[in-house]
Amino acid sequence: MEQSAAPAIRLEHVSKWFGKLKVLQDVDLTVNRGEHIVLCGPSGSGKSTLIRCINRLEEVQEGRILVDGVELRGDGRNAEDIRRHVGMVFQQFNLFPHMTALENCMLAPRRIHRIGKDEARARAMGHLERVHLADHAQKYPAQLSGGQQQRVAIARALCMNPDILLFDEPTSALDPEMVKEVLDTMVELADAGITMICVTHEMGFARAVAHRVIFMDRGEILESAPPEEFFSAPPARTRPDLPRPDPQPLRGASP
Amino acid sequence: MSYQFDFSPLLTYWPELAAGIVQTLRISCIAMVAGLVLGIALTALRMSPSRPLRWLAVSYIELVRNTPFLVQIFFIFFGLPALGLRFDATQAAVLAMSLNCSAYAAEIVRGGVQAVPKGQVEAGRALGLGTADIYRFIVFRPAIRAIYPSLCSQFVLLMLNSSLVAAISAEELTYAAQMIDNRTFRSFEIFAVVGLLYLALSQCLSLVLAAIGRAYFSYPSK
Amino acid sequence: MIREFGFPELLFVLEGARWTILLSALAFVCGGALGLAVALARTARSRELRWGATVYIQIFQGTPLLIQLFFVFFGLPLLGLQLNVWLAVTIGLALHASGYLGEIWRGGIQAVPAGQVEAARALGLGYRSVMIDVVLPQALRISLPATVGFLVNLVKGTALAALLGLTEATRAGQLMSNITFEPLRVYSAVGLVYFAICLPLTLWSARLERRLLRRG
């Protein structure tokens, strides 16, 4: 990108309503290149909405959103350009059921980057390798476990060579025994230096990789601090529904 | 009962019957493909952001679904020439069948598109794909798979309804039956046998469509 | 003498539509009675009955309505059954309807939870009472949207009576078209007449379906 000096993401006075309900209230946020942000807060606090606004799956009514210094236009005309270098991983994986893992990963690069089949396959296999699923490349989503599906979804996002990755509660829909394999993959990505915003309740993950933990409630950012501070300082947020720091360190999470 | 059954005229006229079967299958297959393509286009119109376009699509679909096919055939074959649109009987038949099928197909396909989870479209958008690509690569197959059985029933019904184009003397199986009836007066035998032929055709068509479905939609599901 | 397609001609078509409605009603009532028997046979204990009903349904759903009508109108008289056109068309449409309604109601009967039948049997009710008091009311409610939907098809199906010379709406249109030489206007008018009859039924069917879905 030309505007290499610009922050990866910048939100200025962003507000959003669903009908009469105000779900984002005057949010300001700057995310630097290579920064890892964990967004947490009670359900309905607007954290998922916030990251869905960044790739314009949701529209905002007020304020500005800039990705790599490029402003998201109100009419959504440049949404597709922005999405091409902002990857997203969903809670429900959203793999395409009629395509194999490999085909899921090849679709967007072929259609958007217009690369050949062989190149797309090589790229896809590389990323499936990275999430340790090269052996499962020919399987369909229905033949994979939840954890494996989510890792394919991560590989699919990586195939577009994104500058930024958004994670929307990537482990919430998983059985407990599969959470770790997905978190481990995310930790590896973080170590590789990609810009990440992750909505999650996994505080162990936050401790291990986040540069900043942001707490939201009722559409507002209430607190933003590095994890060591966030988890030790006497919290201004004394709600019972607050995520508690997870005392168990993640395996593979320590540097 | 004094009536003597005599099925021999059917043997005499078997080339006409065979030609009728081929013609019935031909016009039905053309109308199926054309109807499905038009139906998908109508579905797209129906989901477009423009309100007049949506209204147009819904009006067309409801108009076709709520009037008899026979009247539609008469309208096209006898009525449209007044507007300078002239067709021979077979062209009019195929046109009427395609247009009729498209309205039903549109109604069915819409159900399929609605059955595809919203997350699928969002995942496509998040990858940066455009609307056309999303519908073509992501929505299309799961949507058609969801409604494929209804679509097949509709196609079988279309094949059976093709018998009505005999009313404008388009040549197909029912027309052949009427012609043989007029020459031999063996109405009982002829319409019984032709009925059985249609029964066999509809069973075969169901089997073939199911096989096509298995080949095209064979991806595993939960 | 060439006439214009004016009000008297439209009135003629509307009079034809009266027969369309009467024919639909007759076919629906007769076909419904027969269809109920088919549905009961299709869900009966007896294997032979079930098999017979399945074949019956296959025949009427697997052959064109037009051939069914031709068979009744042209074929049966050869066996000595003299039928006038009204009787032939009514019988043909009723048989056709019974095949479709039988299948629709079979679905309804099978959609009633098995526990309902068991509970009724546990109370000591016989087959008649189990069906009449417990199963059929629920089954008919479940299949009401599809039943009304089929009624639309039946109304449209009555148009085929025109091909046997019965002067219902479509045949009335043909006659008017022949004397006015304005087929475009005539068939548009005929189409609109059917539309006016069918659309309310279609909308009603859709509403019933939504209500059924909402109740779960």
Radius of gyration of chain C: 20 Å
CATH fold assignment of chain B: MetI-like fold
Rounded to the nearest angstrom, the distance between the terminal CA atoms of chain B is: 60 Å
User: Which word captures the global form of chain C?
Assistant: globular
Oligomer: heterotrimer
Name of the CATH architecture of chain C: Orthogonal Bundle
**Could you tell me the strand content of chain B as a percent range?**
under 5%
State the helical fraction of chain C: over 70%
Number of strands of chain C: 0
Pfam families (chain B): BPD_transp_1 (PF00528)
Keywords (chain B): Amino-acid transport, Cell membrane, Membrane, Transmembrane, Transmembrane helix, Transport
Organism (chain B): Alloyangia mangrovi
Transmembrane segments (chain B): 20-42, 63-83, 146-170, 190-217
Outline:
The complex is a heterotrimer of chains A (255), B (222) and C (216). Chain B is mostly helical.
Describe this structure in words.
The complex is a heterotrimer of chains A (about 260), B (about 220) and C (about 220). With about 260 residues, chain A is α/β, with parallel strands linked by helices. Helices cover about 30% and strands about 25% of the residues of chain A. Chain B has a single domain, classed as Orthogonal Bundle (MetI-like fold), CATH 1.10.3720. Chain C is an all-alpha fold and about 220 residues long. Chain C has one domain (about 5-215): MetI-like fold (Orthogonal Bundle), CATH 1.10.3720.10. Chain C has 8 helices and no strands. Chain C is globular. Chains in contact: A-B, B-C. The interface of B and C includes residues 162 and 181 of B.
Question: What topology emerges from the helices and strands here?
Answer:
The complex is a heterotrimer of chains A (255), B (222) and C (216).
Chain A (H helix, E strand, L loop, with lengths): L8 E10 L2 E11 L4 E5 L6 H8 L7 E6 L2 E2 L7 H5 L2 E4 L11 H13 L3 H14 L15 H13 L5 E5 L7 H16 L3 E5 L3 H7 L2 E6 L2 E6 L1 H6 L23
Helix pairs in contact in A: 3-4, 3-5, 4-5, 5-6
Chain B lengths: L7 H5 L1 H33 L4 H15 L3 H11 L9 H27 L2 H9 L4 H31 L11 H12 L2 H30 L6
Helix pairs in contact in B: 2-3, 2-5, 2-8, 3-5, 4-5, 5-7, 6-7, 7-9, 8-9
Chain C lengths: L6 H36 L4 H16 L2 H11 L9 H27 L2 H9 L4 H31 L11 H12 L2 H33 L1
Features of this protein?
heterotrimer; B: 222 residues; MetI-like fold; 78% helix; globular; C: mainly alpha
